[in-house]
Amino acid sequence: MKKFILFVAAALVSVVTLQAQEVAVKSKLSTNSYAKESSVENTKFLPMRQRVDRHIDKNKFVYKGEFMLGLTASYGKLGFDNSDILLLFNGIDVGLRSTTLRPFFAYAYNDNRSVGLRFGYSFIDGNLSNIDVNLGLIAEGMENMSVGDLGLRNESFSYSLFHRNYFGLDRRGIVGVIFETELLIKDGTTKYSSGSEDLSETFSRNFAAQLNVNPGVGIYVFPQVCVTATVGIGGLNYNNIRQYNDAGEVAGRRDHSGLDFKVNIANIQIGLVAHLWSNKK
């Protein structure tokens, strides 16, 4: 009889203990659900918290291990023949031609990141055959002034190391934003000539070192061929110009350095890039 009573007592204690534990668990769950509801209610007036991070950096535009070969080229020609501009310049005869080639090679060391080398060649040839200047509206005795037989010839080579970050704008990786930083070294000569019969020439040697920032966009027109467009917005630069006379002696020197940030329309580069051994099939 005593054993039976002890067994019943032990069973009652076990039942009471289990019920107490169940009540504690239910209480904890209800507390957590209430906290979550309160958190949701407190953040309902800030829906942007759920949309700020769109994980744009996870959209792959360039894959790790890719090799890239590209080329940017431009050709321009500017000319005025027997033209009149306002009332000050008449009979303008000017011709200017510019050609630029910039091949490059790059390697993607990580997704959406690449480093590369770029080489550049630029050639500018221009001449001012004639320009009549009429400054009679400004000062007396300066009604008819003529300038002509001037020539300009510039040839330069550049070498640069660049780094690019890519940000895909769509999940398929067709359109992307490019952010490029470039360390550039440029060396060249500029020759000036004047006169037709008594020709005189002077030339200068130009050296430049630049740290440029070039943002842009890229679009895949084929699975492994991309068209890019970048524009220079400035950076840190240093320029050294040495002027020489007809005898080859240094006639002057100018050094200039500065930090400029502005959109440079003359530094818009449109190129074609081939992505080799891409993982994107």
Polypeptide structure, described:
It is a single chain. The chain is built from one helix and eight strands. By secondary structure, it is mostly beta strands. The protein has an eight-stranded antiparallel barrel. A hairpin with a 5-residue loop joins strand 5 and strand 6.
Short note summarizing the structure:
This protein is mainly beta. It has one helix at residues 2-43, and strands spanning 67-85, 89-110, 113-133, 145-168, 175-194, 200-222, 225-244, 250-276. It has an eight-stranded antiparallel beta barrel with strand order 1-2-3-4-5-6-7-8.
Secondary structure: number of strands: 8
Q: Terminal Cα separation, in Å?
A: 83 Å
Helix and strand composition category: mainly beta
SSE order, as H and E? Answer: HEEEEEEEE
Number of discrete helical segments: 1
Radius of gyration: 36 Å
Shape summary:
elongated
The biggest beta sheet, please?
Answer: 8 strands, antiparallel, barrel
Low-confidence stretches: 34-48, 82-88
Strand content: over 45%
Query: What is the averaged pLDDT score?
Result: 75
Helix content: 10-25%
Strand order of the largest sheet: 1-2-3-4-5-6-7-8
List keywords for this structure.
8-stranded antiparallel β-barrel; elongated; 281 residues
